Amino acid sequence: MYDLIGDIHGHATELEQILRELGYARRNGTYQRTDRKVVFLGDFIDRGPQIRETLEIVRPMVDGGHALAVMGNHEFNAIAYATPDPRKNGTFIRSHSEKNQRQHRETLRQMVGHEAEWRSYLDWFRSLPMWLDLNGVRAVHACWDETRMAVIGNATGPIDGAFLERFSADSSYGRAVDVILKGKEMKLPAGCCFLDKDGHERTETRTRWFEPADGRSYREYALIGEDRENPAAIQGDRWHEPVSSDIVNDAVPYPADQIPVFIGHYWLDGKTPRRQTANVACLDWSVAKGGFLCGYEWNGEATVSDAAFRMVAAAGSKA
Predict the structure, then answer these.
(1) pLDDT of residue 227
(2) For 252-282, how does the pLDDT look when each residue is reduced to its tens digit (9 = 90+)?
(3) What is the pLDDT of residues 110-123, one digit of tens each?
């Protein structure tokens, strides 16, 4: 059986606490149980205060066979940020723009003086699969879309130079990777926007890709946490319009008869975690923004149970 854990973002203290609450104990330097494994949903790095400490917990668990892990978009971004672009001298696959530097700043700062160690972690990130299809349960960072998975072809990569070059040059391939690791987004009607977790105004929003889009309004189909009900965060008077036909046509709802799939990525908020559908659950509840680190104790059930969620409040939060 598996215990799934969402986005950690450098919050090692909370990670250790949730591991202990799930019954894992440190033996021979590694958290483990003899009867269960953890499945990490990616995004170990960036933002938080204990990025090295987080990796020092996660990687030995995976390498020792006590856990599995999928790649998050932050791990993929780190690989691309560190990989020179062979087509443009002096540039990188992921540009070193101000925005990208800001997103990656904490990781690079905490790795100063540990450059060889960081290169080793980058090599390890390259080995992580983009999704896991296990016996009775699935895991992916942002979106389970078998059409896009077929484009990528191989969940295990490796994420080498050839992979990244194709990601950059082939729009269908790059789009497939983006959907799996970042989810689907939709452009909002003119005049509509929302404020994200960092207070930035956004005119595109992540979608509830696991549900049908047909007959939904933009507000109903958006996946942006409970703040979508907050008038200060949601702006514009066209949110109640039906989503456009191109959004409906791009939708690939997760079938109700499929095994449960667990995702991270979406910065959800609220006082307690809950499932998104009967067989889809998001385990990213914004630990890096004062929310909580979220886990799920899976015991073979085909229907996600709200009672099986586990949570540890971010240090210093009032959650």
Answers:
(1) 47
(2) 999 999 999 999 999 998 889 999 999 999 9
(3) 999 999 999 999 99
Tokens 């019954």 identify what position? 23
The answer to whether the beta carbons of residues 84 and 91 sit under 8 Å apart is: yes
What's the CA gap between 146 and 272, in Å, rounded? 30
CA distance 195 to 200: 5
Contact 7, 273 (CB under 8 A): no
Both structure tokens of 319: 């959650």
Work out the angle at residue 299's Cα, subtended by the Cα atoms of residues 288 and 267, and round it to the nearest 5 degrees. Answer: 20
Please measure the distance between the N-terminal and C-terminal CA atoms of the chain and give it in whole angstroms. 29
Q: Find the angle CA(198)-CA(230)-CA(72) to the nearest 5 degrees.
A: 40
d(CA 319, CA 314): 8
Please, what are the domains in the chain?
Answer: 2-180+256-313 (3.60.21.10), 185-250 (no CATH)
Cα(268)–Cα(286) distance, integer angstroms: 6
Which two tokens mark 58?
Answer: 């996660």
